[in-house]
Design brief:
The complex is a heterodimer of chains A (207) and B (107). Chain A is built from 6 helices and no strands. Chain A has 207 residues and is an all-alpha fold. Among the domains of chain A are: 8-81, Up-down Bundle (Four Helix Bundle (Hemerythrin (Met), subunit A)), CATH 1.20.120.1200; 129-188, no CATH class. In chain A, α1 runs antiparallel to α2 and α2 packs antiparallel against α3. Chain A starts with a helix and ends in a 41-residue tail after the last helix. Chain B has a single domain (9-97), classed as Helix Hairpins (Orthogonal Bundle), CATH 1.10.287. The longest helix of chain B is centred in the last third of the chain and has 31 residues, at 64-94. Chain B starts with 8 loop residues before the first helix and ends in a 13-residue tail after the last helix. The relative contact order of chain B is 0.13. Classes of the chains: A mainly alpha (207), B mainly alpha (107).
Chain lengths: 207, 107
């Protein structure tokens, strides 16, 4: 986009501060619903950063796919698994948190070292601006044709896999009695299969 | 007298690195399985920001970074769909979303 340099700078600062604070909120907020909505804000700000980088097509794809589909999917998942249970206390949780903060800060130092000391080949070739959309289309249908087609197969596989994993088992006959199954019974609360080893949660009430 | 220059490439890389590290921390420390998936989305977005920055600054005429970013967005959408389906299936079997209780394969 052809913005003045100072405008670009201010936009970059605002968007990156929004992204980083929002990401911290996604990770740190206790309520997962707030996290999901903040994730939507982070993804929108990322689309703004893409616009600053002359990538209007990817910004539109980001908004359509991430904000429109993935974030809504995450919200639906939160709604479906909405169980407000107090988390069981754990040993050495604070120690684990501090250790992982150390590991992440080390990783950050490494990445910053690489980003700031590498002699990048700047300035590169001049940006083609809004003609990037045409160039992306050319890439998709010439030298990246095979990955483009494989991506569609991947999406089909993901769709089938998600349906198979998430559907309820609809049986024509009851496995135990052999009678035709009452479909309404399939909606009843099932005994959790594997939670019997937890001594604190009795899975089956004794008769 | 300072002249305002364009936003340097390194600024985008620094933002992406910080976003990636926040995602890694959330991935390690979240106890809600949905939040783990959200952290993975954050990490994928950080990688995408790197791709776009390199594509704009170092590869301005052949925007290959944008092509890769579109592929990453595709794979991320597939990953989110399958991941949330696995999460639903886990929730039906274990009746919890606490990551610390998914320990069947623990050594």
């Amino acid at each position: 986009m052809s913005l003045a340099l100072s405008t670009r700078f201010v936009c970059f600062l605002l968007l990156s501060v929004t992204v980083l604070l929002g990401a911290l909120g996604v990770v740190l907020l206790p309520n997962v619903v707030y996290s999901a909505f903040l994730l939507g804000g982070v993804l929108l700000s990322m689309a703004g950063l893409y616009l600053l980088l002359n990538a209007s097509f990817v910004a539109a794809a980001q908004i359509l796919v991430y904000v429109g589909a993935v974030n809504v999917l995450i919200l639906f998942a939160i709604m479906l698994v909405n169980k407000r249970q107090p988390l069981r206390p754990m040993r050495a949780l604070l120690l684990r948190r501090l250790l992982s903060v150390g590991v992440c800060l080390g990783l950050l130092a490494l990445l910053l070292q690489v980003a700031l000391t590498t002699p990048w080949a700047l300035p590169g070739p001049p940006s083609i601006g809004e003609a990037a959309l045409i160039r992306i289309g050319e890439h998709f249908f010439t030298d990246y044709l095979l990955p483009f087609e494989v991506a569609s197969v991947l999406l089909l596989m993901a769709m089938i896999g998600a349906i198979v994993l998430a559907r309820r088992d609809v049986l024509a006959r009851d496995v135990v009695t052999g009678e035709p199954a009452d479909q309404a019974l399939l909606e009843r609360q099932r005994t959790p299969l594997l939670s019997s080893q937890d001594s604190s949660t009795p899975s089956v009430p004794s008769p | 007298m300072t002249t305002i220059t364009d936003v340097p490439l390194q600024a985008y890389l620094v933002v992406a690195a910080m976003l990636f590290c926040i995602g890694v921390w959330g991935l390690i420390n979240s106890r809600n399985a949905v939040r783990v998936l959200m952290s993975i989305e954050l990490m994928l977005n950080a990688v995408n920001l790197n791709m776009m920055a390199f594509s704009s600054y170092l590869d301005g005429d052949q925007v290959r970074g944008q092509v890769f970013a579109v592929f990453i967005i595709t794979v991320a959408a597939a990953e989110a769909a399958v991941g949330l389906a696995i999460l639903l299936s886990l929730y039906r079997n274990r009746d919890t979303v606490d990551m610390e209780q998914f320990n069947l394969l623990r050594w």
